[in-house]
Amino acid sequence: MPEEFITVKGARIRVIREGQGKPVFLFHGARFTADTWVSTGTVKAIADAGFQAISVDFPGYGKSERGNYTILSEFIRDLVQTLGVTRAYYLGASMGGEAVLGFALNNPEKVEGVILVGAVGVDKYKEKLVYLSGKKVLLIWGKEDTVAPIKNAKLITDAVPTAKLVYVGRQHACYLDDPEGFNKEIINFLKG
Q1: What is the Cβ-side half-sphere exposure of residue 141, based on CA atoms within 13 angstroms?
Q2: Can you spell out the DSSP letters for the chain?
Q3: Residues 6+ apart with CB under 8 A from 31
Q4: 96/102 Cα distance (integer angstroms)
Q5: What is the pLDDT of residues 7-52, one digit of tens each?
Q6: Which is the most buried residue in 35, 141, 160, 175, by most CB within 10 A?
Q7: pLDDT tens, 129-142?
């Protein structure tokens, strides 16, 4: 996979890009990197479906420099600005899901759709979740996720009528249990 480095507010950030078309940003969880979405076949599946997959190493993860970021949703905002992207899809897993959610709620005009995979920290945003109303939202959870309770997903489905919840695999990192099923849900969502 072709990797490149982009300077975001002075930090050298690694991204893996494949495909053409509307951008789909992929953000990993705390134990993972941009390579996770390559190994699950997600980057290729998105590119093959006619979109541009952009898998990102968060600051201080993988091959990205730490920079001055404490709030990852602000990093997403700066990255998107640096790349000159006006609207895109955003996928985030676990910690990455919380970052994507925070970004989407603060920048709804930049969001085409959101995919949250076992997102943590959702209750922090309870009051703002309605800002996602009318957006395409896909929630993917493992059936036995012990890290991000299913009530996180329910908070979103209760506040956002357009949000759809699907179960893939069992564990928190459900994309490792069933990469094929996971990728199928994402492509259906993007094309739907």
Answers
A1: 20
A2: --EEEEEETTEEEEEEEE-SSSEEEEE--TT--THHHHHTTHHHHHHHTTSEEEEEPPTTSTT---TT-S-HHHHHHHHHHHHT-SSEEEEEETHHHHHHHHHHHH-GGGEEEEEEES-S-GGGGGGGGGGGTTSEEEEEE-TT-SSS-HHHHHHHHHH-TTEEEEE-SSSSSHHHH-HHHHHHHHHHHHH-
A3: 173
A4: 10
A5: 999 999 999 999 999 999 999 999 999 999 999 999 999 999 999 9
A6: 175
A7: 999 999 999 999 99
Looking only at Cα atoms, what is the longest distance across the chain?
40
Which pLDDT band holds residue 1 (cuts at 50, 70, 90)?
Answer: confident
CA nearest 187: which of 32, 21, 65?
21
Within 10 angstroms of residue 161's Cβ, the number of other Cβ atoms is 11
What does the DSSP assignment read for 45-69?
HHHHTTSEEEEEPPTTSTT---TT-
Looking up residue 134, the CATH number of its domain turns out to be: 3.40.50.1820
Report pTM.
Answer: 0.97
Which residues form the domain of 116? 3-191
SS3 for 34? coil
115: its two tokens? 């995919």
User: What does the pLDDT read at residue 2?
Assistant: 84
Local structure of 93: helix, strand or coil:
strand
DSSP 8-state class, residue 20: S
